[in-house]
Amino acid sequence: MVNMKEYFKIYESAETKEVLEENEVDANRLSFIVIAACAVILLISWALDMANVFDVAKSRMTVLAIVGLTEFGVASALYWIFKGEKPWLKYVMVITLLAVCMQLFGILNHNVILIMILPVLLSSRYFSKGFTTIVAILTALLFAAASIMTVFYGIIDLNFYPKLGEGTVITVHNGLRHSVTELGVDSTRAVSSMLENGYLPRILVFVVISIIAVYIAKQGHEMVLKQHAISSVSASAKAELNTATQIQNGMVPNIFPAFPEREEFEVYASMDTAKEVGGDFYDFFLIDDTHLAIIMADVSGKGVPAALFMMASKILIGDRTLMGGTPAEILQFVNDRICSNNEAEMFVTVWLGILNIETGILTASNAGHEYPVIRRKDGNFQLFKERHGLAVGCMEGIAYKNYEVKLNKGDAIFLYTDGVPEASDADMEQFGVERMLQALNIHPDDAPEEILATVKKEVDGFVGDAVQFDDITMLCLKFFGKGK
After folding, report:
1. Which residue from 326, 335, 405, 467 could staple onto 362, CB 3.0 to 4.6 Å apart?
2. How far is 35 from 73, CA to CA, in rounded Å?
3. How confident is the model over 115-139, as pLDDT tens digits?
4. Looking at the 3D structure of the chain, how many domains does it have?
């Protein structure tokens, strides 16, 4: 025997209860729409009966219409008063619908038994098979009560006894038995014919639909529980991604001004990931009192795998840089370490520069990354093309090359990832290097932070409502030398 508590259980947890109650608001709205439609139908039926289109006694139909509309009115008023948000509203509206259906069945043509299916179907919207079962049983009991009412009203439905001619409803105030006798029909045969031709087929339909409704309610309930479980897992994953985002953001310098005590240079950087976590990263730190390391990198791929590879690459590059050596030597060491255990076959493009703060000599090496952009004092930002090496992680034993750039007082350097020139609008047209240079040269004398803000504004204006597919990371450094 099925455990009754389990059978009628609606909620499994406080969280599930909250989810189901949100669905019940929608269910309450649906219930209100149904009873509003039924009220309109009842009102139209009343008007048609008054116009002699129907054969129901006008006094009886008037009483039914007034009582039914009043019941519908009370339920509708409660719905509006509580804005459809109270869970118990569904019980009020289903019970109201049941009461009106019983009244209709009691005095109208017995074909209206089929409308008593409506509360059962409506109840299946509430996700509980137990609730739907209760409504089906209650409907059956009210159906039986309405059938007894017809005896006292003296109503015989000749649609169930076709031999007497045209089907109609005859009401004789002396009662059903006397009505049948007056028609010259054997009462036993009449009851048998009505049961066989009228009640049994309709009861069978009612039972079948009730079973289907209970099944639908069961499936709906289980679906909501599964959705809640999925949403819980999704919420947990989102929380973990948020934590990962915080960790990743904490991996790059994000406090500005970065070196308020240093007058020789000013640096600012930004990173906007396409997903919660990304594969781009930048870094800058003092190796010693006279040398500043600057890194801009872009890991292949997106999302969590790229973020993990990014963190490992950043740590390797940063630690190896602090040990000393030229950018080329550092990249070669990092490349060999990554290639020795790179089963995921990921790679990272890296631009690594070491700036001698006293002389302005910038020694750099490029492992497959974008060309840097350099601005000379009082000039425009221009692309600085140099020889690329292979991206880090592609092949072991690669030898990288250094190159030098002399930064004079007032010069600036701009570093970026491919998310800037490859940003695309809705027509898949890319922002491009030329537009990036134009954006940099709108206000080339601005501070690094303002320069990056201008470029980001231009990129956003170009992209519009299109989805950001790649991380956008930028860094700008202005060199002032001694005695700013």
Report:
1. 405
2. 9
3. 777 787 777 776 677 778 888 888 8
4. 2
